[in-house]
Write a structure and sequence with these properties.
By secondary structure, the protein is α/β, with parallel strands linked by helices. The chain is 54% helix and 8% strand. It catalyses: RX + glutathione = an S-substituted glutathione + a halide anion + H(+).
Length: 230
Amino acid sequence: MATAAADDVETKNDLVLLDFWVSPFGQRCRIALAEKGIPYEHSEQDLLGKKSDLLLKSNPIHKKIPVLLHAGRPICESLVILSYLDDAFPSSTRDLLPSDPYARAQARFWAAYTDKIYEAGTRVWKLKGDARAQARDELVQVLRNLDGELGGKEFFGGEEFGFVDVAAVPFVAWLPSYERYGEFALEEVAPRVAAWGRRCAERESVAKSLHPPEKVDEFITLLKKIFGIE
């Protein structure tokens, strides 16, 4: 999988992912594409400087990644992209969503719910005092809710790695930083999620898509400097 220049990919490849190296939302798409065995071109975007014309044209509403270009047509938002991959590539190696309509609805609900890990976790490292404590409590409750949903299952959908797992697993690399800033231990508040994260890390699609927690923590430190957070 080659990395292409940001503004020179739209017409050269059938499937192009506009992405940013540490983004958990972009990583969702990378993992999904790997799980489904779909070849694509990766286009690394500059989100901390001047955004590319291709990104601004492809996602004029939110102006952010990930964006999947399929034959030049943009699909935005990570969970939308995951669903699209199942719909657009039914003959790929596997589907991420279950076939039962109720199970599909539940998977979409819990996949969207995992975004709260990032939302609350971001507030944990950005804020201080009572605001940080509140964000920490929210994050812990989210993790406990996910722990309860996971229960004794191998993965969120049961025995197979699926839609919710793809949506949630990129946040695993961010959790050590959230734990440090929030002063809690994942093993204590959500032990089944902790064990699930270790199982997921053994998958090739995950291992090749995520960065070590140390790199994520370095990126958070960079963001704190950019935002002027002591």
